[in-house]
Amino acid sequence: MTTQETAARYHELANQRNFIEIQDTLYDENVVCEEPEKAASMGMAIFTNGREAIKAKGVARRATIETVHSYSCSEPIVAGEFFSVVLKQEITFKGKPRMALEEIGIFQVKNGMVIKEQFFY
């Protein structure tokens, strides 16, 4: 797949909140995830290496959510081997008040597979 095709498929699956399929079908086995430094204060690793570790991190994070009130993924912007999306959600974490979250995700693609994801929030 081209970067554009990978980005389009990511967008489609993200708007379905089908994160496991994204990771199973679009992520390279050795994909790297980078979160902002403030993620550590939320109990998340800043760097995560490997598809299975990233999947496990996502499962653990979703387990802390009580309710997803809304979720959206913007149309991707593609440049060379990169694409970016804006992710917005309104959620209630267990034991916390409802909140709105926004982040930018930047993804690097090689040979049709995401090899790096980086988030800014």
From TrEMBL:
The residue ranges of the SnoaL-like domain are 1-121
Superkingdom, according to UniProt? Bacteria
Q: Name one Pfam family in it.
A: SnoaL_5
Protein name (record): SnoaL-like domain-containing protein
What organism is this sequence from? Answer: Niastella soli
Q: What is the lineage of its organism?
A: Bacteria, Pseudomonadati, Bacteroidota, Chitinophagia, Chitinophagales
